[in-house]
Structure formats: C-alpha cells, structure tokens
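[Meeting: bench + compute handoff]

Bench side (C.D.) handed over the final construct sequence. Compute side (W.E.) agreed to return the predicted structure before the next meeting so the bench team could plan truncations. Sequence as handed over:
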Amino acid sequence: MLRRCGAGEIPVTIALMNLAQMTSGRVEAGGLVKRAMAAKGTGRERLQELAVLLREHANAHEIVRRIDGAFTPCAPGVPEAEHWAAMFDGAARISPEACVALYSFGDPALLGKITDELISTLLEWDVVRAPSRVLDYGCGIGRVSARLAPHVGEVVAVDVSTVMLREARERLAGLANVSLMPAADLSSKEGVFDLILLVDVCPYFAKPGEVLAGLLPHLAAGGSLIAMNWSYSIGPVAEREAARDFARVHALALVRDGTVEFTLWDGLVFHFRKAI
C-alpha cells in the first residue's frame, strides 16, 4: 500500500485511512512510513505528504476505528434501506464528516477540499449548468449539495438517514434552491433531473444496478447518471463489467467506465447518459 502511495497510484488520504485500519496506532504507522521513505524508488515526496497528513490528523486511528465499528452486516430479513439508515444514524453521531468520507478523518477543512475537487470535476465535464436540476441521491450531511447549489438551478437532496438529513438541513439552511427529503419520498417529487448523482452510495446495496434502474424514470432525456463507486467487494474489473451490462440493458451511453478522476479520493466514476 505504501509503495502504491509513493508511486501515486492511491491518494495520501486513502493511504492514511488504510494505515489506520491496518496498524495499532500512530507510532506503528509512522514507523512504517519512515521505513518506506528510507527505501529506494518508493516516491519519497509522496510519502512525506503522507507523514505530514499523519501528524496533522492525530485522531485518524480513533476516528477510523469508531466509524468502522459503527457498521455491522445487514441481518437476514431486514430491508437494506432500513439497515443503512440505522448504521449511518449511528456513524453520523460519531462524526458527520467522517461518516460520509472516512478519509477526511472528521476534519471539515479536509472534507471541504475533497468536495471542492469533486465539484470542480463535475463542472469540467459540463454536467452541471445554471439551469440544471440535480438529484443528490444519498446526500449524507449535504456537503455536495451545498457546493453544487451556486452552480445549478435546483438541487433535491435525499437520504435514508434521519440524523444525516438533520445535519444536512443545518448546513443547507438559507440555500433557497436546495430541498431535502427522505429517500422514500422521492417518488412524490414531480419532474425529472438533468443530473442524478450518487457519491459512494451504490456499494451499500447488494444489487446496485437495481437501485440505479429505479432512478432512471427520474432522469431527463440527455441527462447524466453518475455513480461514484459501484462496489467495495467485487474489484474494479467486475465493477466495470457490471456497469457495462447495466448500460447495455437500459440503452444508456457509458461515458466514463470506472475512471479514476480525483487526487484526494480513489473512487471509480461510472457516468451514464440517457438518449435524447
């Protein structure tokens, strides 16, 4: 993992998150980074960035472990939405920022940089414009909706977690073009969206394709459906195969097929476009 970080294959934020999951604490993690820096050909400059991040986020191990510990497997017979609502309610009480991006370590400033990079990328792709109507599906604490709002006509933000929606409501107060609702109420929302965005949502469902298919009736002709990460368990090759199958079955153009677009996050981007 440290070799890959030094080579620029994974962001330093993700490397620190992995270190926090794999080591007993800051001392052990710091020792591993120092030994990696001493080795030849391991990208010393990148590893120095990792060492700085480790020093700046002294609570990384605690936050990562507490958030990871808040999640348990879904019990047989429990609906997925109900299960994840309870899981994220608990995680949000620990750290609203870390529960939506564990690699932010609960740091609002770092989460802001991560989110700004995401929004800048969407703007570069020209999928958000002044008149656009956007659905932020799985909005969490509203961090993406808040950054999107100045660039679009309307944002509808939905989530299954009551606690996260409460956090989002506080963060989005005063933004007249943003509305919040439980995900279960989406069917009552009139009109279609030019962009439906799911940031790290699909991996929490056993059948991501079914979740995305349920959103297609809400997507305008020519609109974009962007899912950032498909699964945590099947690997990038299988993720891309699943996305291609989904695009074929639903007659969608696959604009980005599991591409890596960010410097602060290793999420894979699956960008589908509906025919006009």
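W.E. noted at the follow-up: The chain is about 45% helix and 20% strand. C.D. will use this when planning the next construct.
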